[in-house]
Amino acid sequence: MEEEVVRWLLEPEEPSVRYRTMVELLDYPGDDARVLEAKGRIPGSAPVQAIFEKMHPGGYWLQRNPRTKEVVGDGLMYGSFGTTHFCLSYLAELGMDNGDERIARAAERYLGLQREDGDFLNHYSCLIGYNVRTFTKLGYRDDERVQRSIDLLLGTERADGGYLCDTHEGKYKTRPVKSCVRGSLKALLAFSLLPEYWGHERVRRLVDYFLGREGIYRTTNLDELVNKDMTRNSFPVTWRANVFEVLLALSRMGLGGDERLSRAWRLMDSRRDARGRYPLDWNPRQAPWKVGKRGEPNKWVTFYSYLAHKYRETPPLRA
Fold first, then answer.
1. Per DSSP, what are the bridge partners of residue 221?
2. Is the pTM of this model over 0.90?
3. Does some domain include residue 66?
4. CA gap 283, 109 in Å, rounded
5. DSSP at 301
6. Which residues touch 57 (CB under 8 Å, ≥6 apart)?
7. Which residues contact 256 (CB under 8 A, 6 or more apart)?
8. How do residues 186-219 score in pLDDT, each as one tens digit?
9. Handedness of CA 285, 72, 50, 298 (dihedral sign)
10. Total structural domains in the chain?
11. Which of 21, 89, 144, 213 has the most CB atoms at less than 10 Å from its CB?
12. Which structural domain range is residue 65 located in?
């Protein structure tokens, strides 16, 4: 990493970026005084406070659905980037966990709404994968409800190796429905945090789903990006897809050096400016977390892009 970029990410004004840079990018030990100082400042930081200010005393976040105008969030229906599962994910990104009573209260309430089979809503694969990632980061990896969602992902088979949802499954009468790259990516991101499943056949098929499209391209035309998401950096992580998410997940699993990903790496790095920083192209304006201005270098996009590079040289996926 360029020294200037490191200094930029370590600026004290954003303790969450500073903390995660030290721990995840620079491998500082957890008991380092600088790490402890940064972590201690996260709960009182502006982004965390902004999210909690919108939290309902009952342990959830409400928002008006822009399509139906209905206020949602006390159940599993969600609005535009500001209801419960999004806010819990943002707090996890910011370095918070279930040691905070407010997070524990909201997490317990939300997990209590889970379906018997581990689903949350219409078998949205993006939502299942997103939630597994969120609750793993928040400290719920060993919770049986999180395990039910993991088991649901492992037991869901599709011909192309990806994932879909009830809304789109079977919508064509004359041809099969392809998997959703966005939902498949959220599942891949979740599994990238669960090394105990990297050798599982279902996870291998999901990995092949991405390697077969060279990470970010259409399987039927490897000269065409799979969707417009891949042309812009978005943050926070939501249901949209990012090149850096694909590369981070596969690199964490030991596959970043696969030659089939070379064009994806070039595309991601083509956005880097002369000072080594990556821009933010899109952020959800309805979210309570304001991550930066569109069109400007962004610390979070830069952090994740460099984190992907860090894992690029890790050993390959084992059998």
1. 218
2. yes
3. yes
4. 27
5. H
6. none
7. 247, 250, 308, 309, 311, 312, 313, 314
8. 999 999 999 999 999 999 999 999 999 999 999 9
9. negative
10. 1
11. 21
12. 43-113
